[in-house]
Design a protein that fits this description.
Helix content is 71%, strand content 0%. The protein has seven helices and no strands. Helix 2 packs across helix 3, helix 3 crosses helix 6 and helix 5 packs antiparallel against helix 6. The longest helix is centred in the C-terminal third of the chain and has 38 residues. The N and C termini lie far apart (86 Å).
Length: 182
């Protein structure tokens, strides 16, 4: 095995003896190491690396841009589905208004449909993502996992996206005037 020169070392991991206070060891190492050496605990290293990849490299920008575009495209698709559903059933909505149902009630029906679309889109997407995380993790030896907190965060974003699309589509309900429909 070829040895590396000390000047070529990028990262050194130190295993502390059981019972050693990590914070005290980090503080002591910071005192004895030269100023150009970063001394970090494991959680600090993980945060440092995550910040680096998310903010200082193009991959972070590309991933964020792709995520935002995915949310926008998803919102447009849900909006189109709900808008076309409202437009094709505008006479029925007008009839419900003539029977005394309020815009608030009809809006709740549209938002319910939006949230059903969110759930129906999330479930297969979550299953596929969990599978792909597993495949990529095994292939690259990176510690990737679709955990519950990440899944809940994605569901929250999808839920919000569908809710906003539903609110935009509800504008068409104002056009459902019973006098104009018949």
């Amino acid at each position: 095995m070829k040895e590396r020169l000390v000047s070529q070392v990028d990262l050194v991991a130190i295993r502390l003896a059981p019972g050693t206070d990590r914070d005290v060891a980090v503080a002591r190492l910071k005192q004895v190491m030269p100023p150009d050496v970063m001394v970090l605990s494991q959680p600090q290293l993980v945060k440092h690396e995550r910040d680096y990849w998310e903010t200082a490299t193009p991959i972070g920008f590309i991933f964020m841009f792709g995520s935002i575009m995915g949310l926008i495209v998803g919102m447009v698709i849900v909006y189109q589905i709900l808008f076309s559903d409202i437009a094709s059933h505008l006479k029925e909505y007008a009839t419900l208004k003539a029977m005394g149902y309020s815009n608030f009630y009809l809006g709740r029906a549209v938002l319910s449909a939006a949230f059903i679309l969110a759930l129906l889109g999330f479930l297969p997407g979550f299953a596929l993502s969990a599978f792909l995380y597993d495949v990529v993790g095994r292939s690259t030896f990176l510690p990737l996992a679709m955990d519950a907190s990440r899944g809940l965060a994605v569901f929250g974003m999808i839920f919000t996206m569908c809710g906003l699309a539903g609110l935009l589509a509800m504008r068409k309900l104002r056009d459902a005037n019973p006098a104009d429909m018949f």
